[in-house]
Design goal:
This protein is mainly alpha-helical. The chain has one domain: RNA polymerase sigma factor, region 2, helix turn helix motif (Rna Polymerase Sigma Factor, Chain: A). Helix content is 69%, strand content 3%. It contains 9 helices and 2 strands, in the order H-H-H-H-E-E-H-H-H-H-H. The chain has a two-stranded antiparallel ribbon. It is globular and about 60 Å long. InterPro entries: RNA_pol_sigma-70-like, RNA_pol_sigma-70_dom, RNA_pol_sigma70_r2, RNA_pol_sigma70_r4_t2, RNA_pol_sigma_r2, RNA_pol_sigma_r3/r4-like, WH-like_DNA-bd_sf.
């Protein structure tokens, strides 16, 4: 996953090379966006979080340890931003009723559907779509480890580093997430 020259590109960034800045963004933008979208499930929020990830990455680039995998370090930033975003979003209560101006009557509003666009659904196969839906039902702390392991191909050690968790916790969360998914699949079978 990590390009052999990531530490060199980081070194050039720290020296003020604008091309190196663009190179890092181009190299990892799709992967960061993919993780963010899978976590927050809202296109606009994922785009904002992707941009914020790179802003924070560039601010903290001098703290990157070149002996560690760059993608793991970058996904640490992404996952923490996503988890913070989900915590803030969970705290916001939204009324499903709206009062018409000048009236005492309330009417139920139709909330925006955060689901996938039809063109995205058409591209994906039913089996893949169902597995993604199941992963989306996982609590965020399970969802992120599954995504980093199976979609970004990070090792357990890289995930532990990225999330700042003990290795045993990462293994336990992945095991528990798989058990939850297996149980949900079995309960759907006729």
């Amino acid at each position: 996953m990590e390009s052999a020259d990531d530490p060199e590109v980081v070194r050039r960034c720290l020296a003020g090379d604008e091309r190196a800045h663009r190179q890092l963004v181009e190299r990892y933008q799709r992967q960061v966006y993919s993780v963010a979208l899978r976590m927050v499930r809202q296109v606009q929020d994922a785009e904002d979080l992707t941009q914020e990830t790179f802003v924070r990455m560039f601010r903290a680039l001098d703290r990157y340890d070149p002996t560690r995998p760059f993608p793991a370090w970058l996904f640490t930033i992404t996952s923490r931003l996503c988890i913070d975003h989900l915590r803030r979003r969970r705290l916001k209560a939204i009324s499903l009723f709206q009062r018409e101006p000048g009236s005492h009557e309330e009417r139920m509003i139709d909330p925006e559907d955060p689901g996938l666009r039809p063109d995205e659904l058409a591209v994906r196969g039913e089996e893949e779509e169902r597995s993604r839906e199941l992963i989306d039902t996982l609590p965020p702390h399970y969802r992120i480890v599954v995504m980093l392991r199976h979609q970004q191909d990070l090792s357990y050690e890289e995930i532990a580093t990225a999330l700042g968790l003990p290795l045993g916790t990462v293994k336990a969360r992945i095991h528990r997430a798989r058990a939850l998914l297996r149980g949900r699949l079995e309960s759907e079978r006729p």
